[in-house]
Amino acid sequence: MKVGLVTNFPCDMDAIEYINNLKFDAVVGLGDVECPQYISNFMGILGEMESVYIMKYLKTNKRLIEGKYLNLSTDFSTGIHITHFPPEVNTSILNVKVKNDEIRSIILKNSPKIVIHGHSDRQCTYNLGKTTVISIGSFKAGYYAVYIPDKEEIILKWASH
Questions:
Q1: What is the domain-level CATH number for residue 44?
Q2: What does each of the 161 residues of the chain score in pLDDT, given as a tens digit?
Q3: pTM over the 0.85 mark
Q4: Is the Cβ–Cβ distance between 99 and 108 less than 8 Å?
Q5: Residue 152: which domain range?
Q6: Number of domains in the chain
Q7: Which is it for the CA torsion 125, 76, 57, 46, positive or negative?
Q8: Which domain of life does the UniProt lineage start with (predicted)?
């Protein structure tokens, strides 16, 4: 199984065609996905930019991840946690530091193996305590990730869509 991970995904037909042509078994949005209804096999969490329409679409169509999906979780019930907001990261080339103290303290308390987050323009990997934190980066900047659930492997990618 191969799962695409995206965040900050525009409602742009070239971008949608690009991600759909990768033929993922599922695409997990980590928030700020503008047109999830056009992405094949989409499941996702919310960021701060989704409209009420997107929230209703995801809930009504059972595409909103609440709890566990595959071996990913939004509630720390698995070793791999997904969230929109970063515990701490420099978000752009301007080196603006953004952090969410609540997520940071939960990570330090629970020590999941991996935390994967959206929100950031930058793609990077760093450690927070015993946890590996992965920022998949903004799809608008060409960043996304491939997740292989059986191996618990995350491969960071860049595309010039």
A1: 3.60.21.10
A2: 999 999 999 999 999 999 999 999 999 999 999 999 999 999 999 999 999 999 999 999 999 999 999 999 999 999 999 999 988 755 554 455 556 778 888 899 999 999 999 998 889 999 999 999 999 999 999 999 999 999 999 999 998 75
A3: yes
A4: no
A5: 3-158
A6: 1
A7: negative
A8: Archaea
